[in-house]
Amino acid sequence: MLDAEEVQADAAARAESLRGEREVLLRALVVVVDDRAVHGEDSTGIGPLVCELLEEGQFHVDATVAVPGDEIEIRNALNTAVIGGVDLVVSVGGVGVKSRDVTPEATEPLLDRRLRGIEEALRSSGLSAGATDGGLSRGMAGVSGQTVVVNLADSRAAVRDGMATLIPLSHYIIDQITEF
Q1: Picking from 19-23, 115-119, 159-163, which range would have the lowest pLDDT averaged per residue?
Q2: How many domains are there within the chain?
Q3: Residue 163: which domain range?
Q4: What is the CATH number of the domain that holds 41?
Q5: Per-residue model confidence as pLDDT tens digits over 23-37
Q6: Is residue 7 included in any domain, yes or no?
Q7: Count of Cβ atoms closer than 10 Å to residue 113 Cβ
Q8: Full DSSP string of the chain
């Protein structure tokens, strides 16, 4: 049986070989769930960090959207990304246990299929890297139509580690769901 690191390495190798065949960049959208960021007070720089990591992972980021910790606002932002046809939407924040942490509740109704393996890989890698919020995240991952939707915790450590885990896996999943 393969461990998590071997699965990630295998997915990364497959994604790299497929990426060589692909000439167009994949499209992504970032949703930052943070009441302060909505009012322009985001001092964490999480949105730009996610964009930078996505671009390094061969994604074109269409936009970064900030929404408050409100289930309807989050669902609308995620749904807009799916309807807009992006390949990957990454939400950051709102996956803890505080009363305003409702990103998983907003995400679940949009998903056609959950990707529990990605959810667990993100939590496992978060714990391994010492990103406690990433390891204890209630974040979800799944497919909605032709879009991969993933929730990440909002610390810099959780984002860096989560994106390192997510990018090769997302390339593989996107290739799977766009094969006809």
Answers
A1: 19-23
A2: 1
A3: 23-178
A4: 3.40.980.10
A5: 568 999 999 999 887
A6: no
A7: 10
A8: ---HHHHHHHHHHHHHHHHHH--SPEEEEEEEE-HHHHTT---S-HHHHHHHHHHHTTEEEEEEEEE-S-HHHHHHHHHHHHHTT-SEEEEES--SSSTT--HHHHHGGG-SEE-HHHHHHHHHHHHHTT-HHHHT----EEEETTEEEEEE-SSHHHHHHHHHHHHHHHHHHHHHHT--
Question: Tens of pLDDT along 106-153?
Answer: 999 999 999 999 999 999 999 988 889 998 999 999 999 999 999 999
**Within-domain flag for 6:** no
Q: Is residue 53 included in any domain, yes or no?
A: yes
